[in-house]
Protein backbone atom coordinates (compact mmCIF):
# COMPACT_ATOMS: atom_id res chain seq x y z
CA UNK A 1 0.00 0.00 0.00
CA UNK A 2 1.26 3.48 -0.83
CA UNK A 3 2.13 5.64 2.14
CA UNK A 4 -0.53 8.34 2.12
CA UNK A 5 0.62 11.42 3.97
CA UNK A 6 -0.39 14.75 2.51
CA UNK A 7 -3.97 15.95 2.43
CA UNK A 8 -3.85 15.84 -1.37
CA UNK A 9 -2.80 12.20 -1.30
CA UNK A 10 -5.63 11.33 1.09
CA UNK A 11 -8.11 13.10 -1.15
CA UNK A 12 -6.81 11.28 -4.23
CA UNK A 13 -7.01 7.94 -2.40
CA UNK A 14 -10.62 8.65 -1.40
CA UNK A 15 -11.52 9.55 -5.00
CA UNK A 16 -9.90 6.40 -6.42
CA UNK A 17 -11.68 4.18 -3.89
CA UNK A 18 -14.97 5.96 -4.50
CA UNK A 19 -14.68 5.61 -8.30
CA UNK A 20 -13.85 1.91 -7.83
CA UNK A 21 -16.85 1.47 -5.55
CA UNK A 22 -19.17 3.15 -8.09
CA UNK A 23 -17.63 1.07 -10.93
CA UNK A 24 -17.00 4.35 -12.70
CA UNK A 25 -14.46 3.17 -15.27
CA UNK A 26 -13.91 6.50 -17.12
CA UNK A 27 -13.25 8.39 -13.84
CA UNK A 28 -11.01 5.62 -12.58
CA UNK A 29 -8.95 5.70 -15.77
CA UNK A 30 -8.22 9.40 -15.26
CA UNK A 31 -7.52 9.04 -11.53
CA UNK A 32 -5.12 6.14 -12.06
CA UNK A 33 -2.93 8.41 -14.18
CA UNK A 34 -2.19 10.35 -11.00
CA UNK A 35 -2.56 7.75 -8.27
CA UNK A 36 -2.00 4.08 -7.53
CA UNK A 37 -4.45 1.18 -7.74
CA UNK A 38 -3.19 0.15 -4.31
CA UNK A 39 -4.08 3.20 -2.25
CA UNK A 40 -5.80 2.95 1.09
CA UNK A 41 -7.82 5.64 2.78
CA UNK A 42 -6.05 6.12 6.14
CA UNK A 43 -9.05 7.99 7.53
CA UNK A 44 -11.50 5.14 6.83
CA UNK A 45 -12.54 3.02 9.81
CA UNK A 46 -12.34 -0.15 7.71
CA UNK A 47 -9.20 -0.01 5.57
CA UNK A 48 -9.93 -1.10 2.06
CA UNK A 49 -8.12 -1.14 -1.28
CA UNK A 50 -9.91 -0.05 -4.47
CA UNK A 51 -10.17 -3.75 -5.46
CA UNK A 52 -11.81 -4.69 -2.15
CA UNK A 53 -14.18 -1.72 -2.48
CA UNK A 54 -15.12 -2.49 -6.09
CA UNK A 55 -15.95 -6.12 -5.27
CA UNK A 56 -17.75 -5.45 -1.98
CA UNK A 57 -19.96 -2.95 -3.84
CA UNK A 58 -21.20 -5.74 -6.16
CA UNK A 59 -23.23 -7.28 -3.35
CA UNK A 60 -24.27 -10.91 -3.23
CA UNK A 61 -24.89 -12.70 -6.52
CA UNK A 62 -27.49 -14.96 -4.91
CA UNK A 63 -29.53 -11.87 -4.10
CA UNK A 64 -29.73 -11.14 -7.84
CA UNK A 65 -26.70 -8.84 -7.88
CA UNK A 66 -24.46 -10.72 -10.33
CA UNK A 67 -21.62 -8.32 -11.23
CA UNK A 68 -22.31 -6.40 -14.43
CA UNK A 69 -19.88 -5.36 -17.15
CA UNK A 70 -18.88 -2.13 -15.39
CA UNK A 71 -17.92 -3.99 -12.23
CA UNK A 72 -15.93 -6.51 -14.27
CA UNK A 73 -14.18 -3.72 -16.22
CA UNK A 74 -13.37 -1.92 -12.94
CA UNK A 75 -11.72 -5.00 -11.50
CA UNK A 76 -9.81 -5.62 -14.73
CA UNK A 77 -8.64 -2.01 -14.89
CA UNK A 78 -7.41 -2.09 -11.29
CA UNK A 79 -5.54 -5.35 -11.89
CA UNK A 80 -3.98 -3.98 -15.11
CA UNK A 81 -2.79 -1.00 -13.09
CA UNK A 82 -1.04 -3.06 -10.43
CA UNK A 83 -3.93 -3.91 -8.09
CA UNK A 84 -2.75 -6.80 -5.91
CA UNK A 85 -4.82 -10.00 -6.23
CA UNK A 86 -3.93 -11.26 -2.72
CA UNK A 87 -3.79 -7.94 -0.84
CA UNK A 88 -5.29 -8.21 2.64
CA UNK A 89 -7.73 -5.78 4.22
CA UNK A 90 -8.11 -5.29 7.97
CA UNK A 91 -10.50 -8.25 8.11
CA UNK A 92 -7.72 -10.46 6.74
CA UNK A 93 -9.61 -10.90 3.48
CA UNK A 94 -8.22 -10.79 -0.06
CA UNK A 95 -10.41 -9.34 -2.84
CA UNK A 96 -10.94 -12.97 -3.90
CA UNK A 97 -12.30 -13.89 -0.45
CA UNK A 98 -14.97 -11.18 -0.83
CA UNK A 99 -15.84 -12.33 -4.38
CA UNK A 100 -16.12 -15.92 -3.17
CA UNK A 101 -18.37 -15.24 -0.21
CA UNK A 102 -20.57 -13.01 -2.41
CA UNK A 103 -20.67 -15.81 -4.99
CA UNK A 104 -19.40 -13.42 -7.69
CA UNK A 105 -18.03 -16.20 -9.91
CA UNK A 106 -17.02 -14.06 -12.89
CA UNK A 107 -14.97 -11.72 -10.72
CA UNK A 108 -13.52 -14.61 -8.72
CA UNK A 109 -12.24 -16.23 -11.93
CA UNK A 110 -10.66 -12.93 -13.05
CA UNK A 111 -8.83 -12.74 -9.71
CA UNK A 112 -7.64 -16.36 -9.97
CA UNK A 113 -6.28 -15.64 -13.47
CA UNK A 114 -4.54 -12.52 -12.16
CA UNK A 115 -3.03 -14.57 -9.32
CA UNK A 116 -1.76 -17.20 -11.74
CA UNK A 117 -0.19 -14.54 -13.98
CA UNK A 118 1.43 -12.83 -11.00
CA UNK A 119 2.84 -16.10 -9.59
CA UNK A 120 4.19 -17.19 -12.98
CA UNK A 121 5.82 -13.80 -13.49
CA UNK A 122 7.27 -13.84 -9.98
CA UNK A 123 8.76 -17.28 -10.49
CA UNK A 124 10.20 -16.27 -13.91
CA UNK A 125 11.79 -13.22 -12.30
CA UNK A 126 13.28 -15.41 -9.60
CA UNK A 127 14.67 -17.80 -12.21
CA UNK A 128 16.28 -14.84 -13.97
CA UNK A 129 17.72 -13.57 -10.69
CA UNK A 130 15.51 -10.48 -10.75
CA UNK A 131 13.56 -11.08 -7.58
CA UNK A 132 13.39 -12.67 -4.12
CA UNK A 133 16.62 -13.04 -2.15
CA UNK A 134 18.72 -12.26 -5.21
CA UNK A 135 17.69 -8.65 -4.88
CA UNK A 136 19.99 -8.19 -1.95
CA UNK A 137 23.39 -7.14 -3.14
CA UNK A 138 26.08 -5.69 -0.97
CA UNK A 139 27.25 -2.13 -1.49
CA UNK A 140 30.92 -2.95 -2.00
CA UNK A 141 30.21 -5.34 -4.85
CA UNK A 142 32.70 -4.09 -7.42
CA UNK A 143 31.91 -6.60 -10.14
CA UNK A 144 31.17 -4.02 -12.80
CA UNK A 145 31.33 -6.56 -15.60
CA UNK A 146 27.87 -7.73 -14.57
CA UNK A 147 24.97 -6.16 -16.38
CA UNK A 148 23.21 -3.59 -14.22
CA UNK A 149 19.55 -4.42 -13.49
CA UNK A 150 16.74 -1.88 -13.21
CA UNK A 151 16.82 -0.08 -9.85
CA UNK A 152 13.30 -1.19 -8.96
CA UNK A 153 14.30 -4.81 -9.38
CA UNK A 154 17.51 -4.63 -7.43
CA UNK A 155 18.09 -3.05 -4.08
CA UNK A 156 21.54 -2.20 -2.84
CA UNK A 157 21.90 -2.82 0.86
CA UNK A 158 24.82 -2.07 3.10
CA UNK A 159 26.67 -4.88 4.86
CA UNK A 160 25.05 -3.75 8.12
CA UNK A 161 21.55 -3.87 6.64
CA UNK A 162 22.23 -7.28 5.11
CA UNK A 163 23.29 -8.54 8.56
CA UNK A 164 20.20 -7.04 10.18
CA UNK A 165 17.94 -8.67 7.55
CA UNK A 166 19.72 -11.99 8.10
CA UNK A 167 19.16 -11.69 11.88
CA UNK A 168 15.44 -10.99 11.40
CA UNK A 169 15.11 -14.02 9.10
CA UNK A 170 16.97 -16.21 11.62
CA UNK A 171 14.73 -14.98 14.43
CA UNK A 172 11.61 -15.78 12.39
CA UNK A 173 12.96 -19.27 11.68
CA UNK A 174 13.73 -19.80 15.37
CA UNK A 175 10.12 -18.90 16.10
CA UNK A 176 8.74 -21.09 13.29
CA UNK A 177 11.01 -23.86 12.00
CA UNK A 178 8.61 -24.65 9.16
CA UNK A 179 9.93 -21.53 7.39
CA UNK A 180 13.19 -23.32 6.64
CA UNK A 181 13.59 -26.96 5.61
CA UNK A 182 17.01 -27.40 7.24
CA UNK A 183 15.85 -25.78 10.50
CA UNK A 184 12.83 -28.10 10.52
CA UNK A 185 15.04 -31.15 9.92
CA UNK A 186 17.12 -30.21 13.00
CA UNK A 187 14.08 -29.57 15.17
CA UNK A 188 12.49 -31.89 17.73
CA UNK A 189 9.37 -33.71 16.53
CA UNK A 190 6.55 -35.06 18.69
CA UNK A 191 4.50 -38.09 17.64
CA UNK A 192 1.14 -37.92 19.43
CA UNK A 193 -1.98 -40.00 18.79
CA UNK A 194 -3.27 -38.96 15.37
CA UNK A 195 -0.80 -36.14 14.83
CA UNK A 196 2.88 -35.36 14.22
CA UNK A 197 4.05 -31.94 15.45
CA UNK A 198 7.27 -30.02 14.88
CA UNK A 199 9.12 -27.95 17.46
CA UNK A 200 7.05 -24.84 16.65
CA UNK A 201 3.74 -26.72 17.11
CA UNK A 202 3.05 -26.92 13.38
CA UNK A 203 1.09 -30.02 12.47
CA UNK A 204 3.38 -31.89 10.08
CA UNK A 205 0.81 -34.63 9.46
CA UNK A 206 -2.62 -35.52 10.85
CA UNK A 207 -4.65 -38.68 10.61
CA UNK A 208 -7.73 -36.97 9.09
CA UNK A 209 -5.67 -37.20 5.86
CA UNK A 210 -5.77 -41.00 5.82
CA UNK A 211 -8.50 -41.22 3.16
CA UNK A 212 -6.54 -38.81 0.94
CA UNK A 213 -3.33 -40.82 1.35
CA UNK A 214 -5.13 -44.09 0.56
CA UNK A 215 -6.63 -42.57 -2.57
CA UNK A 216 -3.21 -41.31 -3.70
CA UNK A 217 -1.83 -44.84 -3.33
CA UNK A 218 -4.81 -46.32 -5.24
CA UNK A 219 -4.61 -43.90 -8.15
CA UNK A 220 -0.84 -44.10 -8.52
CA UNK A 221 -0.52 -47.88 -8.14
CA UNK A 222 -3.21 -49.59 -10.23
CA UNK A 223 -1.76 -53.12 -9.90
CA UNK A 224 0.66 -55.26 -7.89
CA UNK A 225 4.35 -55.66 -8.75
CA UNK A 226 5.17 -51.99 -9.53
CA UNK A 227 8.26 -49.95 -8.61
CA UNK A 228 7.12 -47.18 -6.27
CA UNK A 229 8.80 -44.28 -4.47
CA UNK A 230 7.42 -42.11 -1.66
CA UNK A 231 9.22 -38.98 -0.50
CA UNK A 232 8.41 -38.01 3.12
CA UNK A 233 7.35 -40.78 5.56
CA UNK A 234 5.76 -38.63 8.31
CA UNK A 235 3.23 -40.83 10.11
CA UNK A 236 3.68 -43.61 7.55
CA UNK A 237 0.07 -43.40 6.38
CA UNK A 238 0.80 -43.33 2.66
CA UNK A 239 3.58 -45.92 2.99
CA UNK A 240 1.19 -48.26 4.79
CA UNK A 241 -1.32 -47.73 1.95
CA UNK A 242 1.39 -48.36 -0.67
CA UNK A 243 2.23 -51.69 0.99
CA UNK A 244 -1.35 -52.90 0.45
CA UNK A 245 -0.71 -52.69 -3.32
CA UNK A 246 2.18 -55.22 -3.19
CA UNK A 247 4.90 -53.16 -4.85
CA UNK A 248 7.93 -54.95 -6.33
CA UNK A 249 10.07 -52.09 -5.02
CA UNK A 250 9.05 -49.57 -2.36
CA UNK A 251 11.55 -46.73 -1.95
CA UNK A 252 11.10 -44.30 0.95
CA UNK A 253 13.12 -41.09 1.11
CA UNK A 254 13.13 -39.42 4.51
CA UNK A 255 15.43 -36.78 5.99
CA UNK A 256 14.46 -36.38 9.65
CA UNK A 257 16.47 -38.47 12.17
CA UNK A 258 13.47 -38.96 14.49
CA UNK A 259 11.42 -40.28 11.58
CA UNK A 260 14.28 -42.72 10.81
CA UNK A 261 14.08 -43.84 14.43
CA UNK A 262 10.36 -44.43 14.10
CA UNK A 263 10.84 -46.31 10.80
CA UNK A 264 13.33 -48.53 12.65
CA UNK A 265 11.01 -49.09 15.63
CA UNK A 266 8.16 -50.04 13.33
CA UNK A 267 10.25 -52.54 11.37
CA UNK A 268 10.21 -50.74 8.02
CA UNK A 269 13.90 -51.45 7.41
CA UNK A 270 13.17 -55.20 7.53
CA UNK A 271 10.14 -55.27 5.25
CA UNK A 272 10.72 -57.16 1.98
CA UNK A 273 11.23 -54.90 -1.08
CA UNK A 274 11.39 -51.74 1.07
CA UNK A 275 14.44 -49.52 0.48
CA UNK A 276 14.90 -46.63 2.87
CA UNK A 277 17.05 -43.74 1.71
CA UNK A 278 18.05 -41.53 4.60
CA UNK A 279 18.64 -37.91 3.63
CA UNK A 280 17.05 -34.98 1.85
CA UNK A 281 15.59 -35.85 -1.56
CA UNK A 282 17.78 -33.08 -2.96
CA UNK A 283 20.82 -35.24 -2.02
CA UNK A 284 19.35 -38.71 -2.55
CA UNK A 285 17.76 -38.30 -5.98
CA UNK A 286 20.89 -37.35 -7.98
CA UNK A 287 22.39 -40.67 -6.79
CA UNK A 288 19.30 -42.65 -7.83
CA UNK A 289 19.32 -40.97 -11.24
CA UNK A 290 23.01 -41.84 -11.63
CA UNK A 291 22.26 -45.48 -10.77
CA UNK A 292 19.60 -45.55 -13.50
CA UNK A 293 16.67 -46.25 -11.15
CA UNK A 294 13.31 -46.30 -12.99
CA UNK A 295 9.95 -46.08 -11.19
CA UNK A 296 6.30 -46.71 -12.07
CA UNK A 297 4.89 -44.42 -9.39
CA UNK A 298 6.31 -41.46 -7.48
CA UNK A 299 4.61 -39.66 -4.60
CA UNK A 300 5.87 -36.44 -2.96
CA UNK A 301 4.75 -35.09 0.41
CA UNK A 302 7.44 -33.28 2.35
CA UNK A 303 7.30 -30.49 4.90
CA UNK A 304 8.76 -26.99 5.31
CA UNK A 305 9.31 -26.76 1.58
CA UNK A 306 7.71 -24.29 -0.80
CA UNK A 307 6.29 -24.53 -4.31
CA UNK A 308 9.74 -23.88 -5.80
CA UNK A 309 10.95 -27.15 -4.26
CA UNK A 310 8.00 -29.09 -5.69
CA UNK A 311 8.66 -27.61 -9.12
CA UNK A 312 12.34 -28.58 -8.93
CA UNK A 313 11.28 -32.05 -7.81
CA UNK A 314 9.10 -32.79 -10.84
CA UNK A 315 10.92 -30.84 -13.52
CA UNK A 316 14.41 -32.06 -12.56
CA UNK A 317 13.86 -35.54 -11.10
CA UNK A 318 10.44 -37.02 -11.85
CA UNK A 319 11.13 -36.53 -15.55
CA UNK A 320 14.29 -38.62 -15.20
CA UNK A 321 13.10 -41.32 -12.81
CA UNK A 322 9.57 -42.06 -14.00
CA UNK A 323 8.88 -44.82 -16.52
CA UNK A 324 7.20 -43.42 -19.68
CA UNK A 325 3.93 -45.06 -18.61
CA UNK A 326 4.36 -44.17 -14.92
CA UNK A 327 2.34 -41.87 -12.64
CA UNK A 328 3.34 -39.02 -10.38
CA UNK A 329 1.32 -37.53 -7.52
CA UNK A 330 1.96 -35.06 -4.76
CA UNK A 331 0.21 -33.80 -1.68
CA UNK A 332 -1.70 -30.82 -3.03
CA UNK A 333 -1.84 -28.70 0.09
CA UNK A 334 -0.27 -25.38 -0.84
CA UNK A 335 -2.45 -22.40 0.04
CA UNK A 336 -5.12 -24.63 1.61
CA UNK A 337 -5.88 -22.07 4.31
CA UNK A 338 -7.47 -19.74 1.72
CA UNK A 339 -9.57 -20.89 -1.25
CA UNK A 340 -8.22 -18.38 -3.77
CA UNK A 341 -4.59 -19.21 -2.93
CA UNK A 342 -5.38 -22.93 -3.30
CA UNK A 343 -7.03 -22.32 -6.69
CA UNK A 344 -4.12 -20.18 -7.88
CA UNK A 345 -1.44 -22.69 -6.82
CA UNK A 346 -3.39 -25.59 -8.30
CA UNK A 347 -3.49 -23.82 -11.68
CA UNK A 348 0.15 -22.71 -11.51
CA UNK A 349 1.20 -26.29 -10.76
CA UNK A 350 -0.85 -27.64 -13.66
CA UNK A 351 0.77 -25.14 -16.05
CA UNK A 352 4.30 -25.85 -14.81
CA UNK A 353 3.66 -29.59 -15.00
CA UNK A 354 2.47 -29.18 -18.57
CA UNK A 355 5.65 -27.29 -19.40
CA UNK A 356 7.64 -30.14 -17.83
CA UNK A 357 5.80 -32.64 -20.08
CA UNK A 358 2.90 -33.87 -17.90
CA UNK A 359 -0.85 -34.09 -18.24
CA UNK A 360 -2.69 -33.64 -14.94
CA UNK A 361 -5.99 -35.21 -13.95
CA UNK A 362 -7.74 -33.96 -10.82
CA UNK A 363 -10.07 -35.78 -8.50
CA UNK A 364 -12.01 -33.84 -5.88
CA UNK A 365 -12.15 -35.32 -2.39
CA UNK A 366 -14.28 -33.74 0.35
CA UNK A 367 -12.37 -33.35 3.59
CA UNK A 368 -14.11 -34.89 6.64
CA UNK A 369 -17.18 -32.97 7.79
CA UNK A 370 -16.51 -31.14 11.04
CA UNK A 371 -12.77 -30.76 10.45
CA UNK A 372 -12.84 -26.97 10.44
CA UNK A 373 -12.78 -25.52 13.91
CA UNK A 374 -12.68 -28.99 15.48
CA UNK A 375 -10.58 -29.90 18.51
CA UNK A 376 -8.22 -31.84 16.22
CA UNK A 377 -6.35 -28.56 15.78
CA UNK A 378 -5.92 -27.99 19.52
CA UNK A 379 -2.28 -27.48 20.43
CA UNK A 380 -1.30 -26.75 16.83
CA UNK A 381 0.13 -23.43 15.74
CA UNK A 382 -2.55 -22.89 13.08
CA UNK A 383 -4.99 -24.93 11.04
CA UNK A 384 -3.24 -25.47 7.71
CA UNK A 385 -6.46 -26.71 6.09
CA UNK A 386 -9.61 -24.56 6.08
CA UNK A 387 -11.21 -25.37 2.72
CA UNK A 388 -13.74 -28.06 1.88
CA UNK A 389 -12.31 -29.92 -1.10
CA UNK A 390 -8.90 -31.56 -1.62
CA UNK A 391 -7.92 -31.65 -5.30
CA UNK A 392 -5.94 -34.83 -5.82
CA UNK A 393 -3.57 -34.79 -8.82
CA UNK A 394 -2.42 -37.70 -10.99
CA UNK A 395 0.20 -36.85 -13.61
CA UNK A 396 1.25 -38.87 -16.62
CA UNK A 397 3.62 -37.97 -19.42
CA UNK A 398 1.94 -36.17 -22.34
CA UNK A 399 1.61 -38.60 -25.24
C1 LIG B 1 3.80 -34.29 5.76
S1 LIG B 1 4.95 -35.49 6.21
C2 LIG B 1 4.57 -36.82 5.14
C3 LIG B 1 3.33 -37.54 5.57
C4 LIG B 1 3.13 -38.83 4.84
N1 LIG B 1 2.60 -38.60 3.51
C5 LIG B 1 2.18 -39.74 5.59
O1 LIG B 1 1.33 -40.36 4.93
O2 LIG B 1 2.27 -39.86 6.82
C6 LIG B 1 6.44 -34.86 5.52
C7 LIG B 1 7.66 -35.70 5.75
O3 LIG B 1 8.68 -35.23 4.84
C8 LIG B 1 9.93 -35.23 5.52
N2 LIG B 1 10.81 -34.26 4.84
C9 LIG B 1 10.81 -32.92 4.94
N3 LIG B 1 11.72 -32.37 4.12
C10 LIG B 1 12.31 -33.39 3.46
C11 LIG B 1 13.32 -33.45 2.46
N4 LIG B 1 13.88 -32.35 1.96
N5 LIG B 1 13.69 -34.67 2.00
C12 LIG B 1 13.10 -35.80 2.49
N6 LIG B 1 12.15 -35.79 3.44
C13 LIG B 1 11.74 -34.61 3.92
C14 LIG B 1 9.53 -34.85 6.94
O4 LIG B 1 10.52 -35.17 7.87
C15 LIG B 1 8.25 -35.62 7.14
O5 LIG B 1 8.50 -36.90 7.63
TrEMBL record:
Classification via SUPFAM superfamilies: Ankyrin repeat, S-adenosyl-L-methionine-dependent methyltransferases
RMT2 domain location: 177-399
Keyword Transcription regulation: no
Top-rank EC class of the record's enzyme: transferase
Entry EC number(s): 2.1.1.-
A molecular-function term among this protein's GO annotations: protein arginine N5-methyltransferase activity
Composition bias type Basic and acidic residues, residue spans: 147-161
InterPro entries: Ankyrin_rpt-contain_sf, Arginine_N-MeTrfase_2, RMT2/GAMT_Mtase, RMT2_dom, SAM-dependent_MTases_sf
Compartments, record wording: Cytoplasm; Nucleus
Biased composition (Acidic residues): 132-146
Keywords: Cytoplasm, Methyltransferase, Nucleus, S-adenosyl-L-methionine, Transferase
GO terms under cellular component: cytoplasm; nucleus
Annotated spans, Disordered: 131-161
Keyword Coiled coil: no
GO biological process: methylation
Subunit structure comment from the entry: Monomer.
Family statement: Belongs to the class I-like SAM-binding methyltransferase superfamily. RMT2 methyltransferase family.
Known role: S-adenosyl-L-methionine-dependent protein-arginine N-methyltransferase that methylates the delta-nitrogen atom of arginine residues to form N5-methylarginine (type IV) in target proteins. Monomethylates ribosomal protein L12.
Protein name: Arginine N-methyltransferase 2
Amino acid sequence: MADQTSEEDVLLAKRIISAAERHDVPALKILLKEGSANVQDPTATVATSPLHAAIAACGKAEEGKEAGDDAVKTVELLLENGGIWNDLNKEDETPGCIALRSDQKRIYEILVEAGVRAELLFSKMEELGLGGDDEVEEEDDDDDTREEQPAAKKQKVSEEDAKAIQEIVEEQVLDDVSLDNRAYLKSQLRYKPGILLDESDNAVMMDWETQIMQRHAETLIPKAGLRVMNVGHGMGIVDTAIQTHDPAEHHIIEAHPQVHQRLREQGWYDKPNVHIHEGRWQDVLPRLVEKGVVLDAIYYDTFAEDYKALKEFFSEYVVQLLDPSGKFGWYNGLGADRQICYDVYTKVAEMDLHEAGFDTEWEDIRVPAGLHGSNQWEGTRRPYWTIDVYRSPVNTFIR
